[in-house]
Amino acid sequence: MKKLALVLLVVGPHMWAQDRKVAPTWLHRYAPEIHEQRVDLTTGSCHYLPIFGEEDSEARVPQTVARFGELTVDAHGASDSVEYPRQEELYFVLDGSGVLGYGGKSHALRKDDFTYVPPKVRHNLSNSTDQPFRVIVMSFRIAADVPIAPPPEEVAVANLDELREQTVEGHPTSVLYKLLIGPSTGKRDRINAAYVVADLFMMDFAPGGTNFPHHHETAEEIYLVLDGEGEVVAGGGMDGVEGLHPAKAGDAYYFRPNCTVGFYNQKARDTRAHILAVRAFVRLPRNTE
Q: Which of 20, 49, 51, 245 has the most crowded CB, counting CB atoms within 10 A?
């Protein structure tokens, strides 16, 4: 009996360690290989590809991100209507044109439009054209103790063409930014309305351009490569393990707080790359020791 107890003491902890699942610090998905899934927005004429969050195989990993995926509304189709009491939602139009239903009102959307839908507003997407309407949809959870203001009667919609490219302090000049959506307390983004979204932005990389490896202590981030090719940096903290991973159009990377993140574009002539990125604040856990 004593020998058995000793064996359990020696072997047991190793067995438990093998059974424990450690959440990864970053995730990779390739959108063209993702299978369609049904969510509350989908209908017979509206389809959803779960890139991160809801219906993804590792939906438990993102903390503030509830959903990040691609929604396609067929010609003359529509999504279902939804309303979230404690989630904010962002849309970025990849291709085609359609209509956003917002609190009983209709607002036209076209390629490269982006918009913000606050909590407590019923909304949906529809398409009256003969071509598919493709949209990146991003939803973010708002903590229960954050006060929710009454939503505005009108929705804010803007287009990439309205924004000038600019450098951002602390980042190389070989990457230019368009700042789309940010916090309601901010002033630098085109739409300043969010509760937990720190930034939705577009990055334009010159040939050989880079976004130096860095990390965010209190935010998680997603990169979606829209065009071009290069290498994404994904790894540990600022001084942790740094890894280079190939990236092309359709590749998406999710980074947990404190994960190293960056991008290196190709050096060949006329090889620009564009990345749609979103960063959302994550609350640090309380120290219970």
A: 51
